[in-house]
Design a protein that fits this description.
CATH topology: Rossmann fold
Number of strands: 6
Strand order of the largest sheet: 3-2-4-1-5-6
Number of domains: 1
Order of helices and strands: EHHEHEHHHEHEE
Mean pLDDT: 93
CATH architecture: 3-Layer(aba) Sandwich
CATH class: Alpha Beta
Helix content: 25-40%
Shape: globular
Strand content: 15-25%
Structural class: alpha/beta
Largest sheet: 6 strands, mixed
Low-confidence stretches: none
Oligomer: single chain
Radius of gyration: 16 Å
CATH superfamily: Phosphoglycerate mutase-like
Length: about 200
């Protein structure tokens, strides 16, 4: 018995384009992001999906809706799949923050993310691990899409594969990037990571 999870990062936002941290800010997709969401839905339209789960943040919801329509299902929006809250970084550019918080960025280069006022990695991982287990129990032997965020998907995949988490070691940078987990008898296998071929990129980012 195998459950197939399609893990999808949201489409592009104006904040992505400007390299601004978003966290829990409710930023919509920009025009490019909406085109990406449509391209993703077209790619997956003929796949045998039975459910679409999504973060309740607007950029994920806007990415999930075209896919749910293609599969003729109603998307389920849940706060469990939100991005990490990034505290004092929310809404600010990476460039300005590196000058203001050099110690935080030094830790990031070592694989540790610890942002003042932000959600701790252990708390994020517990949140998504619990949501993952609930989803597996509800959708045995099905194909299910989860539309979420780079940090959240990183935490989930690190957890289920039992990889010691180091920020940035797994890449989920591609907007609408597709990652696939096949879970058989409770054992997950990663069969695709951050694939964006539906955007015509050729090479995943």
């Amino acid at each position: 018995m195998t459950t197939i999870l399609l893990l999808i990062r949201h489409g592009r936002t104006a904040y992505n384009a400007a390299k601004r941290w978003q966290g829990h800010l409710d930023v919509p997709l920009d025009d490019v992001g909406q085109e990406q969401a449509q391209a993703l839905a077209a790619r997956l339209a003929d796949w045998p999906g039975t459910a679409v789960y999504s973060s309740d943040l607007l950029r994920a919801r806007m990415t999930a809706v075209p896919l749910a329509a293609a599969w003729n299902v109603t998307p389920t929006f849940q706060a469990d799949w939100r991005e990490r809250h990034v505290g004092v970084f929310e809404g600010r550019s990476a460039e300005e923050l590196q000058a203001e918080y050099p110690d935080v960025f030094a830790k990031m280069r070592q694989g540790i993310i610890d942002i003042p006022g932000g959600e701790r990695h252990d708390d994020l991982q517990k949140r998504v691990a619990a949501a993952y287990q609930r989803l597996l129990a509800r959708h045995q032997d099905e194909m299910v899409a989860i539309v979420s965020h780079g940090g959240t998907l990183n935490a989930l995949v690190s957890h289920v594969l039992d990889i010691p988490h180091q920020y940035g070691r797994l890449s989920f940078h591609g907007n609408t990037g597709l990652t696939i987990l096949r879970v058989s008898n409770g054992i997950p296998r990663l069969t695709m990571l951050n694939d964006t071929r539906h955007l015509g990129d050729g090479i995943p980012t």
